[in-house]
Batch of 2 targets.
Target 1
Amino acid sequence: MPKPTLLEQQLRAHPLVRGLPAGDAAKLLAHAEAVEFERGTVIFSMGEPAETFFLVRTGVVALNVQTEGGASRKIEAIAEGTVLGWSWLFPPFEWQFDAVAETLVRGIAIDAGALRQEFETDPAFAYRLVSRIAEVMAKRLYATRRQVLNLVE
């Protein structure tokens, strides 16, 4: 059996992937590449096509929204060990926020279009992966709810 590549080791070590069946990790790996974003880099912008999602390995990414006046307002920080982006899961497959590297960010980019095609041929794989992403979404929505309640109080 060949020695796993560095990318494969990093992918399998990420909390989203850890514990998935080997075949699921292999499907992710087939559409993955290592990425690095310098501080201040715009990773994606609201309204752009969401054709990639990211496993953040190191660093911090700010999620920003545009206010009515055109200013950018940070609503959340995404840190290492989590997932960046889930707009690729839902039509119209466009980013709902801006993502900007607050620090040097290293991660793994996964081709979401190719992954959606994998979902069509392997619904069990889709269920396992989307269930894990849904857990991340639920935690973030709960955290956002707490923030809103703190603003109201």
Note: The longest strand covers residues 72-79.
Target 2
Amino acid sequence: MSNEYYRVGRVRRAHGIRGELVVELLTDAPDAIFASGRRVFAGDRHGDITAERQELRVIRSSPFKGGLIVAFEGIPDKTAADLWRDRYLLLPDAEVEPPGEDELFIHDLVGMRVVRGEEHIGDVIEVFELPQGLLIDVRRPDGRTVMLPYDDHTVTRVDADERVILVDPVEGLID
């Protein structure tokens, strides 16, 4: 099995007293990934696989406020569920459908160079998924950071092979 894992969900909190978890979705295929009987792996609060590669098997899931409520084997009650807050749920890369042409995984944005014309703005250090859309956190060469929307108005082109994001942000957004 590959050592690469992808984040497919993040546990927000316990739900009720039966050990169910509220899961924020980090996948566009939640029905397949969180189907009854399916397995995911436990990640830590940083999204890394845990040392013991703890496997979780889905008992059931149902939609809840833009995410899911998920019950897993081995999480019997609220006390056990509370220990999962803010942890990530992961899937091995062999079980994740690769992105299509002109697509990439959100986590692939981290580390890409951000350029405006000939100017190197900085490097992506984090990506945030908000209800309004994606934001990329860019570390400037002087150490400061700037948040840029990852949308059609700001991002003009992405070269995945060269790992470059070309931007044309509104005036004043970077300075």
Note: The radius of gyration is 18 Å.
